Amino acid sequence: MRNRINFYLLEYALHSLWRQKSKTLFIGLVLTLLIFLLSALFFIASSIKHELAQSVDALPEITVQKLQGGKHTNIPSSAVDTILSIHGVEDAIARVWGYYYFQKAGVPFVLVGVDPFEEQYKKSLQKIVDNYEISSQEQMLVGRGVYEIFKEHHYEESFNFIKSDGSLYTLPIAGVFTETIELESNDMIILSKQSAREIFAMDADMATDIVVKVANPEEIAMVASKIQLAFPDARIITKEALQISYANIIDYKSGVFLSLFIVSLFTFFMIIYDKLSGLSTQERREIGILKALGWKVELILKEKFYEAALLSFVSYLVGVSVALFYVYILHAPLLRNIFEGYSVLRSSFHLPFVLDFQTLALLFFLSIPLYVAASIIPSWRVATQEADEVMR
Amino acid sequence: MSFFKILFSLSLLLSLSLFANTYEKNAQTKPVLTQQGAQKEWCPVCGMKLESYYKTSHYARLADGKERQYCSIRCLAVDMQEYAIDLSSVRVVDAMSEKVLEASEAFYVMGSDVAGTMTKVSKLAFGTKEDALVFIKEHGGKLVRFEEALKAAQNSLASDVAMVQMKKEKKVYPMGKKIFEKMCAQDIDPTEYLEINALKAALVEKKLCKPLAEKQLQALSLYLWEVKRFGDLEALGDVVKVVKDEKCPVCGMFVAKYPRWTAQIFYGETRFSFDGVKDLMKFYYEPRRWGKYENFTREKISKLLVTDYYSQKAIDGREAFYVLGSDIYGPMGNELIPFASKKDAKTFLMDHKGAKILQFNEIRVEDVYKLDE
Questions:
Q1: Model confidence pLDDT, tens digit, residues B238-259
Q2: Edge to edge, what strands does the sheet with B142-144 contain?
Q3: Are strands B107-110 and B100-102 parallel, antiparallel or unpaired?
Q4: Which residue of A has its CA nearest to B173?
């Protein structure tokens, strides 16, 4: 019986909120805004994190780059043979890829050379190669973003790449692919390795880097050390290291978030402090009258609890749903800019829908119980006094 | 730190071939091709294009008078295992002038910084001693005669084959298979041809496939010749499969949680899964100890699968090699770690401080329990 909601009290609480319209509106608005801001930030962060984690996960275990004077240079493809002869290596793939800057639009594209008969280093890439089949070598597949930019500049069927010697290299567009991992495929062009080498002015037996698949994760460190010994001038990047560096970028960006977060929290605590420091005379009188009418302390507190819970819960719901709408339907205008620029991407990307219940719970427990406590404690202080003392 | 020394020496060996300068081995003049028919362009042993490796090319005549031309002395050595080749019939291309000369009269430079053809150590022939010495000055190596070069090729044959084989299995065969499936008529029968170069010639002449680059053609031919001819890629490539709620009868743990260690014994339809070879061995020797398993005697075992450490694929447990006492631990601590080949096991033993390598029937029950101490 005790736990059942008292509807008369609830009605009274609603009326009480209505009576103090301006105050209710103000607190509700501040709370909503706060929750909206925080949840929107968290949503964006977790979406981007999810997307990056996905693209890192898809990568092979080890990437081998050749360094010359500390700079990344092309690696001879023959290194693949050496790496393949290491025990524990499942596959090694010489990649030919790079950026091509399209001056007219001011956008860089990612050019990825593939050998259609080779096992691709990524499932998403394998899918594209399988689905579209680059039949002749002189063709390319483009991502949606690339296609749109091409169209803007009237390259509907083919595109002229400018080679390093200034001559043109024309490739017809064989198809447009759409992929789940928006972030990496939007600005991607897939073409044959020969064409990629042609555009980048690379020798036929060179590759940009080599990716190595290791079947047993237990062996990654051993394989990496063997590759390092075989190529003293190589930089060996394991997936783990890549994950850490990606996480670092996100965390750095999250620093901006953190400052926003602290400011918001500070505002919130100001409100709470204001509440805790005492009730207005009007509120005190109201409690006094209720006591004089014969209300028990318990009932008064229950009513105050309803009031506070209603207000904060509604604010929470509204804040979170507005944030969801803002992030996943409007794609977070303004706030997104904080995160942009962590890759050379300029073309837009959609944030994948990831509902992070942990952050939702965190926000819930940060806002509602705090606010409820902040309004009940001073009421309890007043309510325990004698009615005449309160009203005096 | 002997392990590092081994690694280091290994790396030196490998890096030699890697950072070798770019010495072109393909023909600069019109190559002399002595074999008959369209297949004359390729080596009958490995199928590689002779023109691309012309500077290491060798010629020989079989007892029946048939001419053979090889990409290198390595393939000559391979062919000598099969055919009786009169060494006096062997001729070689002069790496300098690209003229064909008697092998017995040639001066060989062995172990220069030029990458070998299908071998780690290159062997280039010269018509005169002077030419060879000039070459040595620039590229290093030592001067030998034909017999010595051939002997070296024969001695390193096993390791050379192993080196190339690894690459073939990991890379070339899967690629060849893909090319075959995508680009070719599916009724090609590689058993119709006597040599790989005949197969290759037929692929080109009869247009059995869409036009292919030489590299792709080579991958396809190798796949057809070395894999398809003997059936197909083995149905391996499968991991040991367990369902979610299977428990190890020995330790009682859920096996699906440890996919890197799973091992299975099949008794016809019934199977038991283990989270490591150690538990499997315990069960194998004393099934009764772990419950009511009286009926599951050793004789009734139909199949025994373990997970290969390197490839993580399912392999036949009774054919596998096991390393004991290494620094790699399974879910139940010290383990017997399974490998498909003895070579794999040896490498692992060195890398991970293993104590010994045993084959399945060499494993005694005491060894297994000793691992728990």
A1: 778 888 888 899 888 898 888 8
A2: B123-126, B107-110, B142-144
A3: unpaired
A4: A118
A61 backbone dihedrals φ, ψ, rounded to 5° = -70, -35
pLDDT tens for B106-148 read 999 998 888 888 888 889 999 899 999 999 998 989 999 999 9
CB contact under 8 A, B175 and A118: yes
Q: Considering CB atoms only, which of A79, A90, A117 is closest to B170?
A: A90
The CA distance from B313 to B291, in Å, is 30
Is the torsion defined by CA of B77, B83, B89, B95 positive or negative?
A: negative
Q: Tokens 């034909």 label which residue?
A: B146
Angstroms from B279 CA to nearest CA on chain A: 20
Tens of pLDDT along B197-229? Answer: 888 888 888 888 888 888 888 888 888 888 887
Over residues A52-65, the mean pLDDT reads 82
Q: Where are the domains of chain B?
A: 21-155, 160-230, 263-370
d(CA A138, CA A191): 8
- The answer to whether residue B171 neighbours chain A at the CB level (below 8 Å) is yes
Q: What is the pLDDT of residues A205-246, one digit of tens each?
A: 899 999 999 988 889 999 999 999 999 999 999 988 888 887
Structure tokens at B95: 């790496």
Surface of B (130-169) touching A: CB under 8 A? 163, 166-167
CB contact under 8 A, B163 and A230: no
Assembly ipTM: 0.71
What is the amino acid identity at position A137?
A: Q
**Contact pairs from chain A to chain B, CB under 8 Å:** 82
Place of tokens 């690209």: B98
Q: Which of B10, B175, B313 sits opposite A117 (nearest CB)?
A: B175
Look at B312 and A216 and tell me if their CB atoms are within 8 Å: yes
Contact B115 A78 (CB under 8 A): yes
A339 pLDDT band (50/70/90 cuts)?
low
Cβ <8 Å between B7 and A91: no
Q: Which of residues 2-21 of B touch A (CB under 8 A)?
A: 7-8, 10-11, 14-15, 17-18
Q: Which of A119, A215, A222 sits opposite B351 (nearest CB)?
A: A222
User: If you average pLDDT over each of A27-31, A52-56, A225-229, B364-368, which comes out highest?
Assistant: A225-229
How far apart CA B110 and CA B10 sit, in angstroms, is 19
Residue A81, chain B, CB below 8 Å: the answer is yes
Looking at beta carbons, which residues of chain B come within 8 Å of A231? 15, 18
> For residue A196, how many other CB atoms are within 10 A of its CB?
25
Band (A338; pLDDT cuts 50, 70, 90): low
Interface probe for B, chosen from A66, A83, A90, A117 (most Cβ of B below 10 Å), is A117
Among the listed residues B312, B341, B169, the one whose alpha carbon sits nearest the alpha carbon of residue B241: B312
Amino acid making up residue B149:
A
Q: Write the DSSP symbol of residue B254.
A: B
CA distance A110 to A122: 15
